[in-house]
């Protein structure tokens, strides 16, 4: 998908915010994934970062945390006028939640070659199981997102040895 330059700058701005959230998650001992949801007017509606370890909750992925907050803030679970930015391609659980929330646009940073459920391993948005046609842009600040994850995992492996 071709992106106009002003739109590209907006996507970079919000992905940068998601990277900051991912950094905070990593510093807290979580896999560094961050998410931000922007409303139709371009305002920040909700943020999330991975919280599985801190909350002892297997569903506390950055996307799920942000979706819950956005729905509460809007008092509506229909997020069809919103854009979700996330540093890592969503997993099957998150992809399902994004579809069910009717998110208008998903922008993600780096493909997840193990559990990516948007384009890489499987394609939930375009499957027969999807009742919502999700618009997707991948690869925004891809290098920075990849480097952040790789550095975190390298540090974690180094500490184990």
Automatic annotation (TrEMBL):
Cited InterPro entries: APOBEC/CMP_deaminase_Zn-bd, CMP_dCMP_dom, Cytidine_deaminase-like, MafB19-deam, tRNA_aden_deaminase
Keywords for this protein: Hydrolase, Metal-binding, tRNA processing, Zinc
Pfam families recorded: MafB19-deam (PF14437)
Coiled coil stretches, renumbered: none
Binding site for Zn(2+): 61, 91, 94
PROSITE patterns xrefs: CYT_DCMP_DEAMINASES_1, CYT_DCMP_DEAMINASES_2
Zinc listed as a keyword: yes
Catalytic activity of the protein: adenosine(34) in tRNA + H2O + H(+) = inosine(34) in tRNA + NH4(+)
Residue ranges of every copy of the CMP/dCMP-type deaminase domain listed in the record: 9-121
Cofactors named for this entry: Zn(2+)
CDD domains for this protein: nucleoside_deaminase
Superkingdom of this protein's organism: Bacteria
HAMAP family, sorted: tRNA_aden_deaminase (MF_00972)
Protein family (similarity comment): Belongs to the cytidine and deoxycytidylate deaminase family. ADAT2 subfamily.
Function of the protein: Catalyzes the deamination of adenosine to inosine at the wobble position 34 of tRNA(Arg2).
Protein's UniProt name: tRNA-specific adenosine deaminase
Originating species: Calothrix parietina FACHB-288
Gene: tadA
């Amino acid at each position: 998908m071709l992106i106009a330059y002003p739109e590209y700058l907006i996507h970079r701005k919000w992905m940068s915010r998601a990277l900051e959230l991912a950094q905070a998650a990593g510093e807290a001992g979580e896999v560094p994934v961050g998410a931000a949801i922007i409303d139709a007017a371009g305002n920040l509606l909700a943020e999330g970062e991975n919280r599985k370890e801190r909350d002892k909750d297997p569903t506390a992925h950055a996307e799920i945390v942000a979706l819950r907050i956005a729905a509460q803030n809007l008092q509506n679970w229909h997020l069809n006028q919103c854009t979700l930015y996330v540093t890592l391609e969503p997993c099957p659980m998150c992809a399902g939640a994004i579809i069910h929330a009717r998110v208008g646009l998903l922008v993600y940073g780096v493909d997840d070659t193990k559990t990516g459920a948007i384009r890489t391993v499987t394609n939930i948005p375009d499957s027969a199981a999807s009742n919502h046609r999700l618009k997707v842009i991948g690869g925004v600040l891809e290098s920075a997102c990849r480097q952040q994850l790789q550095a975190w995992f390298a540090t974690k492996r180094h500490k184990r040895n």
